[in-house]
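Each lists sequence, tokenised fold; shown next:
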Amino acid sequence: MSGEALAGPGGYGIDPTVLRTFAAEVKDVHALGCQLALVIGGGNIFRGLEGADSFGIDRATGDYMGMLATVINALALQAGLEQVGVPTRVLSAIEIKEVAEPYIRRRATRHLEKGRVIIFAAGTGNPFFTTDTAASLRAMEIGAQVIFKATRVDGVYDSDPLKNPKAVRFDQLTYIDVLSRHLQVMDSTAVSLCMDNGLPILVFNMLQSGNIKRAVVGERIGTMVHGGRMP
């Protein structure tokens, strides 16, 4: 889940309406018996690369600041989920034991087995890696079946649909299509990791009510990125 999506129309911070809506939708999916792991970005608060460009902060420091922004979002998301009765655990790649558990793969899988929703915070814990890469890495580690990339648009387009009203949406793409055409699905490291491990990626609009559940039950929404044969 992108941090920008959590910001809502304001474009910055955490929109309480978006948070409540997302929590209610996750509750519906959790009730189906699905094991869910969430990765959230921090772009609604701070983006490392932009910080380096705008404030003269070195890239590594900026990335660490972005990781801390994801921790803030993860705690907000945890609070929103627990308010609707969904048990959660936040696991952070940067040790902040007062507010989150340290990330340990076996602990994460155990939480899933117990029916808890886990929220991965602080990316990979290393600078120069995006939240997309963290999502791909964690998905491999816990044996996920698919990555849902929840954004503010309803799939992958050949150009930015927010700027170009004639942009064309794709129903399906292969990993190679995404990489060769430089489509803004996830960064190339994340896409390559998914390609190497055969993990499909579904990109869809999280702001449309019911879309998360539709994705889980197999309705065709958004854009599916896969290896050439539909999963």
